[in-house]
Amino acid sequence: MRAQLALLALLLPLASAFRLPTVGDAVDFASLLVDDRGAADTVLAPASDITLASVTDEYHVLVSAAHPRHKVRVKSTTGWCDPSARSYSGYLDVGGGKELYFAYFESRRAPSKDPVMMWINGGPGSSSAMGLYGELGPCRINPGPKTVNDTTPNPHSWNNEANIFFLDQPIDVGFSHAHNGQVVGNVHDAAKDVVAFIQIFFDTFKELEGRELHLSGESYGGRYLPVFASAVYDANAALVDAGKTPINLQSVLIGNGLPDLYSMLESFRLMGCQQQEGINGTILNIDQCIALRANTAKCLEITTKHCLDRFEPVDCAIGFDYCMIEVFSASRWAHVNPYDARLHCFPGEPGCYSVFDDIEAYLNLPDVQHKLGIPKGYKYEMTAIDVGERFRGALDWTGKTWEYVAELLERGVRVLNYAGMVDWVCNHVGQEIWIDKFDWTGKAAFNAEKLADWSVDGKKAGYVKSHGGLTFLKILDAGHMVPMDQPANAAAFLKQWLDNGVVGK
Question: Where is the signal peptide (predicted)?
Fold first, then answer.
């Protein structure tokens, strides 16, 4: 069990036990509709009367005419984190007392016109606070935070180009929770809640209705996002039948993701035993490479037969565990950071990604939780081990996510798959294997394209190729968390993608 938890931590930075609110914490929904100062909330209805500008720094309960059984609790946090843009924080009840937490920031550029983006982190079980405060969000947390104002604006934030909400999902992750003991243990159940969230969000805030939507995230987000996007697309039919505006889904952006576990398992020997640009020498030594070659062959034989060709749960689980121990975790043989092969430290060790310790400390400060409208006494943790274990036990990792990518492309939903080139855990070699291998009508033309140099401000920043709505981008000197390692270059490719529909042109 200890080995399994250690392996799970590869995609759960700073993994630690997650505590649900106690009985004392989990007061009923009505009591949460009164803020810490005792001021009663305002209920605004119908949906057509609701605007973001009408929301103040006290909680408002917003009722959508189309979703009368669901409520949005939202408050303004404008002036905090990003003084240059209006911001909001709140919960959306997606049914049965399941409340998903979100932080929303308007665009710094043209909020009344710019598209809307969603960002999620991976895990499964990682809070989107990683992205918000450590990567692409409007502010960064100062070292050793003591107050709500211990933040510094991020000049490379993605809200330079888009209105963006950071979503903690599924329930039990970050500040999201359920009042009736519900749990989510696979991507398809998670998709139901995310679709409900997106539909209610756009229906509630009418000024966003019909606006372009781009779904983005990283790591296990490569498994989440294609399924979420497909569910959003398919759910539009019911909206149209009901005379409502469909969700204007335009694209999916996957950063160092996992749309194809099997290609990634195939890639580790190549990543570890061949010279990689940006890394001095090979990651693994000769003996380790010989062992990994044999382990990979056995791993792929078992998982191809019992997980991929036909799904046999018991044998698939045995193969999956073998692969995770003997292949996926091979970077540990060389004491290499799984998120950045240039580093020889692991998340949680002193001096290794201390930013995540600061984020967790910041989000447990009482004045921060008051500012964000979090229930009193809530214990925030960056990762939810229980969620990750449920997904692992359900063998969710073994799903054929690339099939969803193919179907999205056939329907005109663009996909940007980007990868930092010194990441191990979802490395660029595995990304190239799966993206050239999966079947779709543009496969032959896409594969015929060659990777071309991609430059930012006249300096080479990576490699890119595109065809028919699919773009593959490799980013130099970046690991698993590209916007953290290369914030300016990440902002550059985002702008190109949103403005031109492609990167590099």
Answer: 1-17
